[in-house]
Amino acid sequence: MPLQIYDTFSNEKKLFEPIDPSNVRMYVCGPTVYDFPHVGNARPVIVFDLLFRLLRRIYGNDNVTYVRNITDVDDKIITAASENNEDIKSLTERTIKFFHDDADYIGALKPTFEPKATDYINDMIDIISSLIEKDYAYVSEDNVLFSASKFSKYGQLSGKNLEEMIAGSRVEVESFKRSSSDFVLWKPSKSSEPGWDSPWGKGRPGWHIECSAMSEKLLGKNFDIHGGGQDLIFPHHENEIAQSECANNEKFANFWLHNGFVNVEGNKMSKSEGNFVTVNQLKQKYQGEVIRLAMISTHYRQPLNWTENNLIECKKTLDKWYQLISENNFSFDNEKISSEVINALEDDLNTPKAISVLHQLYKDCKSNDRNTVETFLSSANFLGMLMHTSSEWLSWGKEKLSIDEKQIELLISERKSARDNGNFDKADKIRNDLEHKGILLEDNEGKTTWRFK
RNA sequence: GGCCACGUGGCGGAAUGGUUACGCAGAGGACUGCAAAUCCUUGUAUACCGGUUCGAUUCCGGUCGUGGCCUCCA
């Protein structure tokens, strides 16, 4: 089945055809590094990781270039740094490390390139200069602004039209803008703020220009896929198109992909609402694969309601799956990945369907051979799950235990003799006491094993 | 106010112009001293009103509801 993906620009599911099958190019907007990533930030990391995996499978591991940028210059960073009383560099470097830890934790492969905005300031200045030269941009009070009305396609990605936007504008037009829809390419920096020398004085880039610069530098003027969260459609991606296409006279990205939001109690999870859960907080209670499964159990374009219940359910599923592979040393085999799983993903990343195939494969494993189990395992691995051994999985969180293993073994044998003597009250008390400490005892085929709750 | 998306069982969540996947929970059973885990069986749903059609949950129109964007956001 050929790969089909939903393109936001044309609002339809389309057959994906790469510009160059020997170098399929994808750019995804990454984090602005000023704080711990929350679950909403993690969604595109996982969604586009899956697309990356799928593209690599279809076109070959060496034939896909995945760029996920890091925004390390931004007003929020400046504000956060001054609130923490630390310098910007130390804030961004620390936050990048948090981000990498979290991305690893949820099983995301490393992108091919992870450019930082501050390394591309000169490229941004070049684009801005060319936009001024072509009269798409103008200088006003030390700012450089893009004149949205000069780009006839402005609004096409987000389905807006300029006049309505200007009419419905809810924010006051800043004095240096000719029109409310014009946006900043370059702005002046105060002496306390980070700044770079430019033809328009010491300043820093506007938010959108970095992606135009970095994508062009690393992927070329025209590339295959540009992705990010739905909240970036407008204005961020709309503005990127305007800048890049006006500067280059060439089509920017061929496909636009946007993931839906993560909701909490029906409302969008966001930093400004304060209703967020960070990946770092979840690490205390759940393995990364639990977060990953919870994330991909909803189709990427649908809103995803984040609940504890869902996490518990996903953990149970993974516990069950890990039990199946505990018996032998099953191994991953690229050739054994279920074609049904691939088909599901090739249909606009239908992960819920892919998961239902895993459930079916799990059932098939019962009555079948090693080969079936390896198909199950390989398929799960392809989705970034069952990457650990069963014992690693089951002993997860051991260090947080308030009781040591020898003691548990001791209690198990105490319980055994109680049971042998028919003293079930005592036996049950031992089991219950351990359960209160988060240890579950399981009696199977005459043997008692334990695991974490 | 403008634009857009969505509304499937108790919950999560796919799909489809003609028997509505799958998972969790629930119920019943096997196993167990009792549980747990596992296995087997199983009930339950397409917001509302019209239209098109032999047939609509699916297509079209309207109503209601929810959410998003229009301002920083993944």
Question: Your description of this structure?
Answer:
The protein has 453 residues and is α/β, with parallel strands linked by helices. It folds into three domains: 4-259, HUPs (Rossmann fold, 3-Layer(aba) Sandwich), CATH 3.40.50.620; 264-394, Up-down Bundle (Four Helix Bundle (Hemerythrin (Met), subunit A)), CATH 1.20.120.640; 398-452, no CATH class. The protein is built from 16 helices and 15 strands. It has helices at 39-59, 75-84, 88-105, 121-133, 162-167, 209-219, 233-248, 279-283, 288-296, 308-324, 339-346, 351-367, 370-382, 390-394, 405-420, 424-436, and strands at 4-7, 12-15, 24-28, 64-68, 137-140, 143-146, 183-188, 203-205, 223-229, 253-259, 262-264, 267-268, 304-305, 439-444, 447-452. It has a four-stranded parallel β-sheet with strand order 4-3-9-10, with helices on both faces. Strands 5-6-7-8 form a four-stranded antiparallel β-sheet, with helices on one face. A three-stranded mixed β-sheet has the order 12-11-13, with helices on one face. Helix 4 (121-133) packs across helix 7, helix 9 (288-296) crosses helix 10 (308-324) and helix 15 runs antiparallel to helix 16 (424-436). The longest helix has 21 residues, at 39-59. It is elongated, with a radius of gyration of 26 Å. The relative contact order is 0.11. The chain binds one RNA strand of 74 nucleotides through helix 1, helix 5, helix 7, strand 12 and helix 10.
